Amino acid sequence: MNQLADWLHLPVFFFLVLLLWRSAKGQANAWVFWSALLFKLSCGVLLGWVYLHYLGGGDTWVYHQQAFKVKEVASQNLGQYFRLLLFNETDNIPIGFTKWRDYSNSFFFLKLLSVVCLLTNNSYWFSSLYLSLFSFWGCWFLVRKVQEHYPDFGMGAIIAFLFFPSVVFWTSGITKDAVFMGSLCLTVGLFLKLYKTKSVTETTRGLLLLLPCVWLLWRIKFFLTAVLLVLLVTFLFVKWLVRRVDWLRPAIRQFMIWLGLLTAGAFIASFAHPTFKLDFFAKHILWNYRNLSAKTDLSNPHLEFPNLEPNLVSILQHAPEAVLQMLVRPLLWEPARFFYKAMALENTALLLTILLTVFQLLKNLKKPVLPSFLAVLLVFFCIAAVLVTLPTPNLGSLHRYRAPLLPFFLLVVISWGPIPHWIKRLSSRRE
Length: 431
Known about the structure:
Elements: H1 2-5, H2 10-22, H3 30-54, H4 58-76, H5 78-87, H6 105-120, H7 124-149, H8 154-163, H9 165-170, H10 176-196, H11 200-220, H12 222-242, H13 251-272, H14 278-295, H15 312-328, H16 338-364, H17 372-389, H18 395-402, H19 406-416, H20 419-430
């Protein structure tokens, strides 16, 4: 009977896949949907297997074990379980990460995972498939929106969000990054939809869908969510003003207004909550850097910022180096274990992609086109890359943390380079 319960949820899973398939059915890129979905689900299973057999279990199996305990309580006392979900009341539930239960993203993720475990009868592998599917849903939604509104960037979006190995692998399975990636892409895709629509009905519907996505995104990584929201909300407000004030139509004036709004928003936010103060961010970054450096195995490739100080000027001075290091480290020739060599191999491919794009731009001697919405996403990547890299000297951890952010950079770099043209030419030859 227990084995039967392990499979009863499958109609739900296939129904969700069917709903997603309807968005691709009849389109020329339907084959992309199935290959990308299979890749994503496989990576979710592979991640759990790698952690179980080679990385000592890791967070993904700890979360599963914790969720199992919560699920057992839920099956015996449903009222107590609902109090946990709605009011964070742990009572005698054996759940970890309770020190800052109202703010802890790990505590929130455990509650979310326990719901999935109830559905899958506590199967790690099926729970992994559901979270991978959610991550894929967000990526697929955003890719479709980019294809619809910026067709020249469509192929770049497909490669960056659906097929780049580390992006797909680290945002799959039972991880917080799977939830973060899905909600991040859904949020960005809905903002793009709001930006392009002129219908009041569509705008209202978009806002209603946006609210739960932003809430989920906020609960997983609030500081990156704050950056994204400030950038996109001010951007949409400027575009709304442009439609009503002709004086703002020149791009330079729009940029200056947007920059002014960002500055004002950062100033107001610093009074709204202590964690949004710039000096708090600076001190927290340095504290994390020193704390994690003390725990990092220095025999492995790692990042060093010996001159980093707890102030905004120092962070800005280290920002270009932080972004560069996140993109290229570890390097292929650095002595390290196999895991780091695999990371270095992908970084080499990434560096070659960047060089190909630079060569293409120099060869054409033409200014590349970059839609303003995608430019804002590129700014988000740069800011988020600095906030993630400076406090993370461990390159293994950094490789995971960069995975949900990297596609916003790759989207532009790949689209500006020759790779989409090569793929289209190869496809036309096969036809």
